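Comment thread on ticket #2218

A.B. wrote:
> Attaching the input chain for the structure job we discussed in standup.
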Amino acid sequence: MDKQKLAQEIKTLVSKVVRIPEDRIGQNANLFSDLGVDSLIGVEIFAALDKKYHVNLPEAKVRDIKTLNDLVEMVAENLKPSNS
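C.D. wrote:
> Ran it. Output below, let me know if you need it in another format.
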């Protein structure tokens, strides 16, 4: 999947979960301080990502996600075929 398209889809998904218009969310927006994501909302976001992309993000790496761009990178990494 094209990374730009993936970024837009994830931005749309996050926008719906946090109830903030997409045009107010930058790629480098901090999920916690800028968008008000807490642990419950974070779980909602990851559940929505799993449902849409069928990715199981490694819990150890989830803690490293701070920005929307980090989230896009993590999903993109997990969408790659494992036999490449």
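A.B. wrote:
> Thanks. Noting for the ticket: The mean pLDDT is 90.
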